Amino acid sequence: MQALNDIPVLDDLDAPKQVAVTSSGKRNVYLETYGCQMNVSDSEIVASVLRENGYGLTHDESEADIVLINTCAIRENAEQKVRRRLDELRSRKKRHNPDLRLGVLGCMAERLRHRLLEEEKLVDLVVGPDAYRDLPNLLSQAHDSGQAAVNVQLSREETYDDISPVRYDSNGVSAFVSIMRGCDNMCSFCVVPFTRGRERSRSATSILDECSRLVDEGFREVTVLGQNVNSYAADGVGFAELLYRISQISPELRIRYSTSHPKDCSDELLHVHAERENVCNYIHLPVQHGNTAMLERMRRTYTRDEYLSLVERARLIVPGVSLSTDIIAGFCDETEEEHRDTLSLMEAVRYDHAYMFMYSERPTTYAARKYEDNVPEEVKKRRLTEIIQLQSQISLGSNQAEIGCEHVVLVEGTSRRSDAQLAGRTDSNKMVVFDRGDYEKGQYVRVRITDCTSATLIGEPV
Ligand code: 5AD
Ligand code: SF4
After folding, report:
1. Residues near ligand 2 with C-beta < 6 Å?
2. Domain limits at 394?
3. How far is residue 263's CA from residue 243's CA, in Å, rounded to a whole number?
4. Is the pTM of this model over 0.85?
């Protein structure tokens, strides 16, 4: 998940988010979410399925009859964090509450069902990302029979199209709307195609209905989500067309998306950014690496030069567009020279923001089968540090260039540091903090930038 106020490094994506809606039913569920925005969105679907079936949802872990952990498998340290959490919960169950039921949902469920259930006997319930409709059944089974309940079947169709997510952790301003699931790209380092299965897209009508409802409920921003969001295609509607249609719902609604692949960043999509005022001036364009041979080993389907031309085209068609990226340091066989190509690409593009990771080998992936994870840990760390330091400088430079400029900020809430200040993002996805005055969450406020750090802009309303 993306921290809003910091330059994100590896762990930002893995921080847990817990909460739930009010208690209303027989058994209380405490739901804790790790990993990406898609998991946050999935937990909102899980909350909806549970609520519809008479379960209560609680914020208080000690009130729970059932604890569900929605998990992430993208890097080893994300899995370790979940395992430590499961150990803690299991010992609490043993000591204080033998009736407590523990469940693992999401990407780790898919990957580790046998170990979780049999070898380690850690949990009572294992539910993969396409099996959430089956949760009430599985929960009854786990409770009534005391037997472990499992469904990790992946689907070629499931999009949870008809389920209205319960946005229990929402700020009431920004919402996630899931529009496609799965990934067919098979980048060699990535476990997602194995944990989440094949690509499938939700119908445009139901997405547009959901966005309209969100506007009626007072939401002012949607982030449409998918593992490979810009390969969206359903009923003859492609991603660019879908964004265009969402943007027509209301000029008051900002539209963002995550996470995209450069191969699907078409001119048509860039023109939608340029033409539609409320489609944000921001594109997340994960490059992963700056060297063509490495990109080939990563199976990214573009070269360094092709990527750089795409950036050029994006900046030509969408003047002033803000760009962010994902970068992996220390992938198999990476030489010092190849690493320097990543640094030089970062200098060439000058991203506003980057999510930076150390390569973590994932079992079953192409890289795990065909290549050796042979860059020593200290070298990976040092390369990642160089990447992070460079991005920090670039982000600071890009923020300093904003001083004196004006932006329209959508207020998301109070600033983390002080209740006397509000925080929100610019169209270009930069976080701005300014004095509260009479402004409120959900308002658009024109702000002049007066100062900055590498992570945050500081402004005053004009
Ligand atoms: N090791 C490190 N980072 C990874 N990512 C995906 N798989 C791995 C891995 N095995 C990163 C990529 C991707 C982001 C979501 O996570 O940069 O874009
Ligand atoms: Fe993983 Fe590549 Fe698919 Fe992204 S596009 S989810 S990195 S396989």
Report:
1. 183, 185-187, 190, 192-193, 227-228, 261
2. 281-401
3. 17
4. yes
